[in-house]
Fold these 2 entries.
Entry 1:
Amino acid sequence: MKETKTELRFFNIMEYEKEQDYLRERHRQGWKLKATYPPGIYRFVRCQPEDVIYQLDYNPDGIKHKDEYVQLFQDCGWEYLFEFAGYSYFRKPAEEAQGDESIFCDDESRLEMVRRVFYGRMLPVLLIFICLILPQFADAVGQDEIASPFFILILILLALFLLVFCQFAWQYRRFSQGIHK
Amino acid sequence: MDAHIQKVYVPMTETSFYILLCLRHPSHGYGIVQRVKEMTDGEIVLSPGTMYGSLSKMEKDGLICFICEEEKRKIYQITDLGTEVLHLELRRIKRLYQNAQEAMQ
């Protein structure tokens, strides 16, 4: 019987909750996460099927002060796995957790994390887009090259960005409504 | 006090309130988590992501300061500004409580 398996899954920067659910589901089936590689390769090792909560935190300051950051999570009973694409991965067996425990206990801090993702990841991409790609895009339109592969690639990237942006707006609204409820 | 600080911290989250309250004595993040658990009979368990984010933010805003590090745990203490903010918040909560008491009588 195979002891490891690899799966390819794409989660964008705002889909950390989906990713957490996916990892929990795999662990429940007896596959615990071992490593993650770009662009979206997940390596699992066979284990006893168990309900384990997975949590992702996006915190550049925490990564900079990794020792203290990881220590606090470990003190609170979370196992630190690794860091991937700016996210730190943690897990805790559900039976040791208090109900559906999360690494955040209020919507203010969930919103703060969404903000960190926005300023750390989405804003830089948006700026690159506006400063570098848009002028070339305008040129292509001017020269009637709208069927060129470059033009189509830009359109695809733009659509992807808009999708992530909508997901960001949705999460933002969800957590800020939670605060002002 | 900076108007911005007042706007951000009055009213403040339960986590921020307990952090300021506990840091009248030097402590680290997990120390605060344990202390709050005791104080509330296990009802409030602060989570590490929330705790780490709040401590960084409050240190940056000058409400608490870093004292030293012990076994990879950063020890903080409240500053004068933090004490001032805590008292403002306490005054708000007292008024809230008094008004509720009067209204319910």
Entry 2:
Amino acid sequence: MRKIIDSAIETIIFICGMLSIVFVVLIFGFLFKEGFSFFRNFGILKFVTGHFWYAASDPASFGILPLILGSTLVTIGACTIAVPIGVMSALFISEIAPKGIRDVLKSLIELMAAIPSVVIGLIGVITLVPFVKNIFNLPTGLTAFSGSIMLAFMAIPTIITISEDAIRSVPWKYREGALALGATKWQTVRRVVLKAAMPGIIAATMLGIGRVIGETMAVMMITGNAAHIPHSIFDPVRTMTATIAAEMGEAVRGGMHYRSLFAIAFVLFAITFIVNFMADLFLGKNKNI
Amino acid sequence: MIKLSPKLSQKFSYALLYIATLLAIVPVITIIFIIVKNGISAISLEFLTSMPKNGMREGGILPAILGTFSIVLCAITIILPVGVCAAIYLNEYAKDNFLTKIIKLSIVNLAGIPSVVYGLFGLGIFVMFFKLGVSIIAGALTLSIMELPVVITTARGALNSVPYSFREASWSLGVSRWQTIRHVVLPNALPGILTGTILTVARISGETAPILFTAAAFYVPHLPHSIFDQVMAMPYHLYIISTQIPNMPKNIIYGTALVLLMVVLTMSCIAMIARIYFKKRRKW
């Protein structure tokens, strides 16, 4: 009897183990099915390179180039801010800060990662948006620039945590070797530790990018949601994620507009798959020091 | 370019790193400070326990609190057993082969999918295909799939931290594989799994995009009765009152944000304290 129960439980465990594969395949299949039927009707080239997103007008135009550019602009902006700050903070936390301060900083960063994106969006709308509007004398503060700043805050915890892991996993003998040769502590950190931890830091950057591309609520509240091709970072933009979130409610189920949103989701899925896959490769590399 | 002496350049760079860390930390404190300072005046027993009135411009947020609570409860009941079982499989049973690699790749990929794509998937599968409608259960299932990779990863970490010798001792006494897991590995991994669960609760409470089309409603005049009800949820409610409703009194917006923030941060703090506590008590 006990043997039967044991093997029944082990079967359940095996099924649960397989579930992640099942879900990935299901999500891929589902997005592909809806997206593919859209591509057949509308044309994939026209979809990716079209300059106009007029989903609700008649005749509708489903060009996601402005959305892709919107996402790209916000992502580049956010990473320009978040990567240097994140990596430098990770260096500070793991190499310089005394133990007590390190623990406090790490807890604060954990709290930062926990703040819901709606709250970040709200703070952005109330404090940052009017500030950007006044300081750069713009017609509106709801711009890609404001979005980038707020998204940088959301990417920083990811970047710090993973870079810090990578920096810490650099073997002590590397540092001892450099110090024994008479290098200063900073020279050791910059020339030896940073170099050895590089794959992990690149992975951290990748995961940060993934987080920024996928962010929805804060971006929808701050970037102004104008679906046109941006000319500068001070233009309002609309990202792919915000388009899905904003328009799904009004799209007619099963209609062209509805399926076009699934097609966008498919594009997002493909992008994040590549980004995370690459991050994983770099993380794997880091373990082999 | 002037070449600095190594000592001076070290001082200079340390100062730079210090500033960067400040830049990363100060915004967190500022955000929490702004919300607490402006929101504290709105918090009262009435705000927490009454229905919204006058187009949500007055009254409380009780249905949103209960809505979030029921979604979180439902999602955790689904995800915890599944996630822990998956972690047990990966850590205790899986061999180092192609299948395991694929599972790990799937977990990495699931973790990276944007939350709004999960929302869309949930809408297509649970709301429409399984005809669950926009409901607590549809939202909870969507959130479960989304949080699965995180739960698996943390549970696996907890299982992995149980020393291998514990298992060997149990096996050498003739105990079967599952019995060893059940009576030796799981009890020792429980603190880690518990901490992970609290963090998952914190994250689920703050998620908006996945429940946007699967569970959340603009306004529901009654409290949730069953898992097939549409509900109001705190993050979605906050989104609506801060962007969609004109002339919304600021203190209600801040008050709602404060309640949401406090729920999430309290959970995270409890998890952090629990982790430190269990680490100190660990005997190996």
